[in-house]
Amino acid sequence: MNYGYMRVSTDKQDADNQRGAILEYANKQGLQNIEFISEVISSRKADRAIFQLIDGLRPNDNLIIFELSRLGRSMSELESIRVKVAEKGCTIHAISQNLTIKPNGSDISTQALIFALSISAQIERQMISDRTKSALQARKAKGLPIGRPAGQSKLDAHEAEIKGYLAKDLNLTAISKLIDCNRQTLANWLESKGIIK
Fold first, then answer.
1. 0.70 exceeded by the pTM?
2. Which pLDDT belongs to residue 89?
3. Contact 162, 190 (CB under 8 A)
């Protein structure tokens, strides 16, 4: 079986980009019938879908990911996942690194490459975090507002779209999936706007 694993932000474009890259890669490699597993979640959580996926892997299955950083945020987590996948007799395909990690990929060169890529990803995350903090400090020093104005919701921009879905009798679960938000957040927003009671 071939699995495409995607860990994404709440940005739908991110999910579409990863899915597209995985499908293109699979077609080139002759890997058919991709089953996609996607989670919109921080990789820091312990109950991630990737662990459920690994539990269900069978020998000779393929796990296709866009890049190694989708699997884990640290070298130790990434290595732990690699070992678990290898123990299942499966292969990891990391597209952006052009890396295929076979079940017997415990040799020193594979481990060194994974280590180097993992360190690069950690450095990049730290740099992004530092830039974000610097930008926020600069805005604060200038007396500019930080974040969304009080009383404003990201769902305000989707108000007409949401009302259209409600008019078509879609339930809140379906609507929340269509606009990529939490169902309870949507319910709270609808109540605060007086759209539903």
1. no
2. 93
3. yes
Sheet holding 62-65, edge to edge: 34-40, 2-8, 62-65, 91-94, 99-101
- Strands 91-94 and 99-101, how do they pair? antiparallel
CA distance 40 to 186: 17
**What is the three-class DSSP state of 183?**
helix
Answer yes or no: are the C-beta atoms of 91 and 103 closer than 8 Å. Answer: yes
Per-position b or e across 179-188, b if 16+ CB within 10 A of its CB: bebeeeebee
CB contact set of 75 (below 8 Å; sequence gap of 6+): 114, 115, 118, 119, 122
Q: What is the pLDDT of residue 139?
A: 85
Helix pair 75-87, 108-141: axis angle to 10 deg: 140
**DSSP helix/strand/coil, 123:** helix
How far is residue 49's CA from residue 55's CA, in Å, rounded to a whole number?
10
Which of the 8 DSSP states describes residue 149? Answer: P
What value, to the nearest 5°, has the Cα angle with vertex 48 and ends 7 and 12?
A: 25
pLDDT at residue 108 in the model: 66
How confident is the chain (197 residues) per 10-residue block, as mean pLDDT?
Answer: 85 76 93 89 65 92 90 76 90 88 71 72 79 86 75 81 86 85 87 80
- Say how far apart CA 141 and CA 139 lie, in whole Å: 5
